[in-house]
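Researcher: I've been going back and forth with a colleague about how Methyltransferase domain-containing protein might be arranged in three dimensions. Neither of us has a model we trust, so I'd like an independent prediction. The organism is Amycolatopsis halotolerans, in case that matters for your notes. Sequence below.
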Amino acid sequence: MKLVTGREFDRGLLGYRCWLELANGGRIELPVGRWADGCDAGDAVLLDACEGPTLDVGCGPGRLTAALTRRGVVTLGVDSSPVAVRLTRRRGASALQRNVFARLPGEGRWNHVLLADGNIGIGGDPDALLRRVRELLKPDGDVLVELEEPGHGVRRDHVRLRPDPADGRWFTWAWVGVDAIAEIAVRTGFRVVWTTSRGHRWFAKLARA
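Model: Here is an independent structure prediction for Methyltransferase domain-containing protein. You can compare it with whatever you and your colleague have in mind.
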């Protein structure tokens, strides 16, 4: 599995306009404004579902990690980018520079794991990621996932960030439509508790099967 190193998204984390270039020449604009801003109505779907210790995987600049911390929820942001960790800590929240597949604090004891902003695509293998997330959760914990709109199914592609970062390297990413999450959940030991939308954003809550 080819994982991002942490540098690929730094330009977007800092608020600069950027996009993912696909292997076929297409491109997907990244919502860098949302990453850097305060939380919106879509984020509230995720925040309101977190009532205990929460791990924010791929926390980026930390808007969700910080918002939960302000609510009094014990929260740790995890990101492979040192820029993301620095920005999250600057917001007054806790963050750790670590790959989600590496050893993490509190394994098996988290109430919730957040996969917001398309982070279900980390590594280009949603099944492998959810199996790893299952190891992080307590037995009655859940994962809160942001998804693509219905009709997208599951898509994997080689992408690179544009404008070029330092090396412009290609890495693998995935996208999962809300209509495809139930099948993935079954394969990875979860069940879908609910799906919902807010504006143009789609979400699901998965619990252990």
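Researcher: What would you highlight for our discussion?
Model: I'd start with this: The longest strand covers residues 137-147. After that, consider the following. The chain has a mean pLDDT of 91.
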